[in-house]
Amino acid sequence: MSNTDFALAVEDLTVSFDGFKAIDSLTLYIDRNELRVIIGPNGAGKTTLLDLICGKTRATGGSIKFKNQELSKMPEHQRVRLGIGRKFQTPSIYENLSVFQNLEVSYPTGRSVWGALAFKCSDEVKARVQVVAEDIGLGDKLEMEAGLLSHGQKQWLEIGMLLMQEPELLMLDEPIAGMSARERELTAELLQRICKNRAVIVIEHDMEFVKRIAHKVTVMHQGKILAEGPMDKVQSNPKVIDVYLGH
Ligand code: ADP
Ligand code: MG
């Protein structure tokens, strides 16, 4: 397989903070339509890796290729336009706006200079909002003020806001933290649905949840990859049990 067949190719990626390598010569490939879960102890560098891919943090060395374009020197907004969506741990929705309005404002105004100038057809936006709202299980809550949603529903709304941009790579950092058992189940189904059209990277600690959703699991430790593969293989790896699962 050549590098162009991957949704994302991270090669020899390094970032150091005052000499401390939070990511240390890391190489990782994600397939199109793959749902990859990244696990590992606190401080392993999981969040930092997502920061590097979305452009919040600049790499010290190495390469990040997405759709065969080099990202590592590209500003964050340009990466968003290329199709990278990132959800942070705390949801950033507009609490005073309705679910509909939250989704509406997330509709991209255009990915090119001409697109930005083009007339935004309101029927097209409405149709897209409807599709995304159904996808995230909020189809019957469009008029509700976002602040009144449950914690889980707020998380889904934020995922929906990212889906409005139709990202080709979606990254989620601990999306089920604080969710009820039922909300976790629904989130697993949601993630399985949305990875049909895109690559998805999820950082998660809940092993039952990881088992349900992961196509492949990457285990990080001290800025490096400790193990990678299907969940059952990774789970029985003595090194993984030693640094992470055994605790
Ligand atoms: P994880 O998400 O796996 O728990 P992080 O990526 O948050 O780990 O952190 C990895 C390591 O990098 C930690 O030791 C953290 O303190 C350090 N780190 C992360 N961001 C910065 C930064 N901006 N400046 C200095 N150190 C950082
Ligand atoms: Mg983290």
TrEMBL record:
Domain of life where this protein originates: Bacteria
Keyword field contains rRNA-binding: no
Domain ABC transporter: 8-247
InterPro entries named among the record's database cross-references: ABC_AA/LPS_Transport, ABC_transporter-like_ATP-bd, ABC_transptr_urea_ATP-bd_UrtD, BCA_ABC_TP_C, P-loop_NTPase
One of the record's GO molecular function terms: ATP binding
Keywords: ATP-binding, Nucleotide-binding, Transport
Protein's name according to its UniProt entry: Lipopolysaccharide export system ATP-binding protein LptB
